[in-house]
Design goal:
Blueprint lengths: L12 H24 L8 H13 L12 H8 L4 H25 L4 H13 L1 H7 L5 H20 L4 H18 L2
Helix pairs in contact: 1-4, 1-5, 2-3, 4-5, 4-6, 4-7, 7-8
Length: 180
């Protein structure tokens, strides 16, 4: 007998519709947020931006090791341009809602229930604020959820274990470098 949360295997047309709806709703919520609010900076933001500048200049004079280099490296790839950072982090926030859905579906959760949890991530105001902040939370969540999805694929499908294991390890390692 199936439990309440169990469902048929993932990957059908219904899953694509749910994922498309998540992308649409998460994207709209971020567009609305961008229309009325600007970027946020917290007490940690200057430290990330300073280290990003050091990485860009390849001059680590004055580096105090208070920040790990993962998130500042990401910022330096975007030249610490606020518009590009907010766009990239908004796209990551949208991807996070889809990864929550996919991860739960890989764990045999019913599509509607998995969609509900994805929707919580897509529309959660506090997570949207992180997307619009110079903080490592959105990138960390993306890396962790990507690792969870890779690990779930290993558990579900016993083929191609080696590349999936490598991907899981790389994502977990990157998450640790971004936010230990």
């Amino acid at each position: 007998m199936k439990s309440i949360g169990e469902a048929k295997p993932h990957g059908g047309a219904g899953d694509l519709k749910y994922m498309g709806l998540l992308v649409l709703l998460a994207g709209l919520s971020r567009l609305i947020f961008a229309r009325y609010y600007g970027p946020f900076q917290s007490g940690d933001s200057p430290g990330y931006l300073n280290l990003a500048r050091m990485i860009q200049l390849r001059d680590f004079t004055g580096y105090d090791a208070l920040r790990t280099p993962g998130y500042p490296f990401f910022l330096s790839l975007l030249h610490s341009e606020m518009a590009w950072i907010l766009l990239a982090q908004s796209l990551m926030g949208i991807a996070n809602s889809v990864l929550v859905f996919m991860g739960l579906r890989l764990l045999k959760c019913r599509p509607g229930l998995a969609f509900g949890y994805g929707l919580l991530v897509a529309l959660s105001v506090n997570l949207i604020v992180y997307d619009f902040s110079i903080l490592s939370e959105t990138l960390t969540t993306l890396l962790v959820m990507g690792g969870v999805c890779c690990a779930s694929l290993i558990a579900e499908k016993q083929n191609r274990i080696f590349p999936r294991s490598i991907a899981t390890g790389l994502l977990a390692g990157a998450a640790f470098i971004v936010r230990p």
